[in-house]
Amino acid sequence: MSTIDNLPPLRDVIATHELAAKKSLGQNFLLDLNLTAKIARLAGDLSGADVLEIGPGPGGLTRGLLAEGARRVLAIEKDPRCMPALAEIADAYPGQLKTINGDALDVNPLEHLTAPIKIAANLPYNVGTELLVRWLTPPDWPPFWESLTLMFQREVAQRIVAEPGSKAYGRLALLAQWRTDPRIVLELPPEAFSPPPKVNSAVVHLTALSAPRFPADPGILNKVVAAAFNQRRKMLRSALKSVSPEIEDHLNAAGIKPTERAEQVGLEAFCALARSLETATP
Question: What is the pLDDT of residues 158-186, one digit of tens each?
Fold first, then answer.
């Protein structure tokens, strides 16, 4: 028996339903239910919240979220093979688990969730970054979610929390740190998964800020940051030429040396540059 509920151990669930992980779906299953419950606890108090989970697979984290008191869980799973196993969990937690067999990139979760909403997921490796960027760049802020508790390859997790001057620092760090407080809260070795990936993994917890850390137009900031890091080896006066013909004046106005490179510039300075460019927009 498992240690968090009366359902079978995950190895038995995987064997019963023939759920060998598929590389094409970016699947790496966590089998230790004590570990999935720990990740659920890292999402904070779930008792009054709906939780969105992407890629539940055989349901290890799903069971952790429900065992830790989530009001309701919406689990979106692309692999139809996993649906019978998830249905068994739904039967054990009547009215608390809704499952959708589909692509998370195509499903509108707000049709199925009630605020407050948290997102917790062992994200499939092949769509994790794309989903994170979507959640960090909605048209309106604050977003529909209060927090994100997400598993990534450790390299991606380090990019989310990176500081200026490091090789990991880039667009993902700026997007995350502008509007959230991101922290790596757990690191996991390959052997925690089945099959073991070739890299270590890490859980990142991102808490949504009520307002961005520094004022800036989202569209302009995103354009500037994308252009700067697309040519990160170039000086900013060259990398940002396409953004404005007077880019050197704007860099100076923002307190940025035109000869600096993107990885040397902090979030506050990038926001100042976006504001300077906004005042020049006709």
Answer: 999 999 999 999 999 999 999 999 999 99
Residues of the chain within CATH 3.40.50.150 domain(s) are: 10-208
Report whether CATH 3.40.250.10 matches the domain 218-280.
Answer: no
Q: How many CB atoms lie within 10 A of CB 219?
A: 11
CB count, 10 Å around CB of 185?
A: 16
The whole-model pTM stands at: 0.93
Q: How confident is the model at residue 24 (pLDDT cuts 50, 70, 90)?
A: confident
Is residue 99 exposed (0-12), middle (13-18) or buried (19+ Cβ within 10 Å)?
A: buried
* Peptide bond between residue 190 and the one before it cis (omega within 30 degrees of 0): no
Cβ–Cβ under 8 Å, residues 267 and 177: yes
State whether CATH 3.40.50.150 applies to domain 10-208.
yes
Query: Which residues make Cβ contacts (< 8 Å) with residue 17, sequence separation at least 6?
Result: 58, 81, 82, 84, 85
Tell me the C-alpha distance between 80 and 78, whole Å: 6
pLDDT value at residue 127: 87
Domain with CATH 1.10.8.100 in the chain: 218-280
Whether 210 shows a pLDDT value over 70: the answer reads: yes
Q: Cα separation of 13 and 132, whole Å?
A: 29
DSSP string, 9-33: PHHHHHHHTT-PPPGGGT--EE--H
* Residue 154: how many other CB atoms lie within 10 Å: 18
Q: Helix 128-136 to helix 154-161 angle, to the nearest 10 degrees?
A: 20
